[in-house]
Specification:
By secondary structure, the protein is an alpha/beta fold. It contains 16 helices and 15 strands.
């Protein structure tokens, strides 16, 4: 790809803001929701779209424009009318990739350039929030990479970057080289308490000096990293043995109960809002887990728990899940589920809206976009 494309000047007034990231699962959807909340509070109408989808929505989607699960959730959460929701051009799966590889990119994307033009036909008083691909490169096979989308609709780009280490600076510098003046700012996400000082005193001044405005710095939130018991049920294909009305509980950590009961009590006492994985025959471990901060028990081996355990779980309102898997496979699935950090729970939406309101400079973003709002009298 020619880097000179990314060096084109963004129009002084950009009605299109494309939210992208350096790696997948960094919080783009969360950022979109937080931005939408702040922009609406300032009286700016919002239009939303996700050109490149990566997860097929539910089969009972009523709006034909919705083809991605995140789009479905955001559209519902923001209560967007049909005219404020732009179509997802392509939901990427194995079949679409195979098709793209077999017939060639030019044929595969026939008509998509025209469909992208729809993104330019929105009310002039609205700000169009677009959720970009998971990485800078994703979507290149279909001419729908972050830069390609931004170029077609003349969008400014806001990058969301998870603070894994100081090495993230390399990725942002590379993105700046590729995106040029289209990059109007970055949001650094998931900053631990230990690293806040270094981010503020060292990384932010450095990035600003390189022409990369740091518009937000979000601290790590255990709640945003958590998953619901319902999500675990779905991912594990588990059977719910009790408390099916408590699947909305949020799980923040994982513990494996494979030791003696005395060690387990000390081990469980150190955790908060846990999912405890143990064998269905380990009544002692199950009881110990129920007396600590456990949000659900996950029992392996398809061995039913005793009546005593079921009764105690009912009293404490702790769901018990049964899975037809071994402990290692169960733990691996739960670990992957944590890694997805999905936003599809109302409590997470409220959390991200509060974090963005406190730690993101929305006024500076509007200034970067060249948007001036009327001052209420």
């Amino acid at each position: 790809m020619n880097n000179s494309v990314g060096e084109e000047k963004v129009p002084k007034y950009s009605r299109y803001l494309l939210v992208g990231s350096l790696e997948a699962n960094t919080g783009k959807s969360a950022t979109v929701l937080g931005l939408a909340s702040q922009l609406r509070s300032k009286g700016l109408p919002i239009v939303y779209g996700k050109p490149l989808g990566n997860s097929i929505g539910s089969k009972n989607v009523k709006n034909a424009q919705v083809g991605d699960a995140d789009v479905e959730f955001i559209a519902s959460t923001l209560e967007l009318p049909p005219e404020s929701l732009l179509p997802t051009i392509l939901c990427v799966d194995e079949q679409s990739i195979e098709t793209g590889l077999s017939v060639g990119k030019v044929q595969t994307v026939t008509g998509r350039s025209g469909l992208l033009e729809i993104y330019s036909q929105v009310p002039s008083d609205s700000l169009v929030l677009l959720e970009g691909p998971g990485t800078l490169a994703e979507g290149s096979l279909f001419d729908l990479s972050l830069l390609q989308i931004a170029t077609v609709v003349e969008a400014a780009v806001l990058l969301v970057a998870r603070f894994n280490s100081e090495g993230m600076v390399d990725g942002l510098l590379s993105a700046k080289q590729r995106l040029g003046d289209r990059l109007v700012g970055v949001l650094i996400n998931d900053i631990t308490t230990e690293k806040r000082g270094n981010v503020q005193q060292t990384i932010v001044p450095f990035l600003e000096a390189q022409g990369i405005p740091v518009l937000g710095r979000l601290p790590r939130s255990n709640l945003l990293q958590s998953v619901s018991v319902f999500e675990l049920v779905q991912q594990l294909e588990a059977k719910v043995l009790c408390c099916s009305d408590r699947l909305g509980l949020m799980v923040e950590s994982l513990r494996i109960g494979a030791m003696n009961v005395n060690s387990a009590l000390k081990y469980f006492a150190k955790g908060e809002n846990m999912a405890v994985v143990t064998g269905g025959d380990r009544t002692d471990i199950q009881l110990a887990a129920l007396e600590t901060s456990t949000q659900c028990l996950v029992l392996t081996g398809l061995i039913p728990p005793s009546e005593m355990i079921l009764n105690r779980a009912e009293e404490l309102e702790v769901p018990i899940l049964s899975v037809d898997k071994d402990t290692l496979s169960t733990v691996e699935i739960i670990d992957r589920t944590f890694g997805k950090v999905r936003l599809h729970e109302p409590v997470k939406v409220e959390c991200i809206q509060k974090l963005m309101a406190s730690h993101f400079d929305i006024d500076r973003l509007l200034e970067q976009l060249g948007i001036k709002l009327a001052v209420a009298r």
